[in-house]
Amino acid sequence: MDGTTHMVPMSVAEKYIVERKVRMRVLVVEDDRSLGLFLQKGLMLEGHDVEWVGDGDAALDMVAQQMPDLMVLDLGLPCRDGAGVLEAMRRDSLTTAVLVLSGRSEVQERVRCLDLGADDFVLKPFSFHELMARCRSLLRRRERFADPVIRFGGVELNRMERIVLYEGIPVDLTVKEFALLEFLMQRKGGCCSRSELVQQVWHSDNDAGTNIVDVYITYLRKKLLAVHPEDLTKGSVIQTVRGSGYRLRDKRSAARVDALAREDLRVRDTSGAEKQFGYEQGERFDEAM
Ligand code: CA
Fold first, then answer.
1. Please, what sign has the CA dihedral across residues 75, 80, 85, 91?
2. How far is the CA of 43 from the centre of ligand 1 (A)?
3. CA of 125 to the centre of ligand 1 (A)
4. Buried-most residue among 171, 224, 258, 277 (CB within 10 A)?
């Protein structure tokens, strides 16, 4: 097994992702759980990475951390209402495109949201197809200005050309391996949980009883290792976060940490001999494979 997926027929959603040039990040802010999950699923099937939160404060935290390309924002929300979220975002110069979703039909309400910096406004109840078309329109505008290249930890991933370079050397990846690496890279070293990866990369809500993420992480590590065999001793650029998931290691900062650790962890044992403590060496070996 080498991780090749060519033998497996692609689902409609996967075909769409292949045809799309750039995956965008979308945040759905909606306190109605069933509507929030419905929108998340719909936008994921359009080929985007989608998070859903149910209150205004969580929305602001998420925007500041992840800088999504598009936010679908309900107005009536707990903690902080949609207008408050919009106002705070624009005050902090957060440029995520915002589509307001509201049950309030008054013209003044629409004018207020657009003046606060909303990019579009859709009234509830809405047609799902129209909402998706409006999201596509906002994302197309965004795509024109988006940098297609993500760089992190020595890896350069071009979302437009679908090319991956590791320290300048091309790495040939399957569709799923590319999508998995792209999601990890978008987090810039932040941890991605297994359930999040199953949801965003495989478009499934159920990660119980499957080790698909671990299997594909192994494929990716092997391909990256084939390009840079010295990672076998240094550890893979894809790190395991015990009990949580995976993240990418920034190789340059990790090298500095390693150098400091080697200096600082030199201690004398009771016999007076200098002893150097291992620095996560067992884990690094695991990660290389
Ligand atoms: Ca609401």
1. positive
2. 19
3. 12
4. 224
Distance 75 CA to ligand 1 centre (A): 6
The pLDDT tens digits of the residues spanning 147-174 come to 788 899 899 999 878 899 999 999 999 9
Name the residue ranges covered by the structural domains of the chain.
Answer: 12-145, 149-249, 252-288
CB count in 10 Å sphere of residue 225: 18
Fold of 12-145: Rossmann fold (3.40.50)
Write the DSSP symbol of residue 16.
H
Read off the DSSP letter of residue 229.
T
Write the pLDDT tens digit of every residue in 124-150: 989 999 999 999 899 888 777 767 888
Instruction: Give this prediction's pTM.
Output: 0.57
Compute the distance from residue 67 Cα to the ligand 1 centre, in Å.
22
How far does the centroid of ligand 1 lie from the alpha carbon of residue 109, in Å?
A: 15
Kindly give the parts of the chain with pLDDT less than 50: 1-10, 12-21, 256-257, 260-261, 263-289
How many angstroms separate the Cα of 256 from the Cα of each of 236, 252, 259, 261, 277? 16, 7, 5, 9, 17
Q: How far is the CA of 102 from the centre of ligand 1 (A)?
A: 8
Fold classification of 149-249 (topology level)? Arc Repressor Mutant, subunit A (1.10.10)
Question: Could you identify the residue written with the tokens 């390309």?
Answer: 69
Interatomic CA distance for residues 174 and 2, integer angstroms: 10
CA 29 to centroid of ligand 1, rounded, Å: 9
Whether 182 and 159 have beta carbons less than 8 Å apart is answered as: yes
CA–centroid distance, 52 to ligand 1, in Å, is 13
Structure tokens at 87: 């106002």
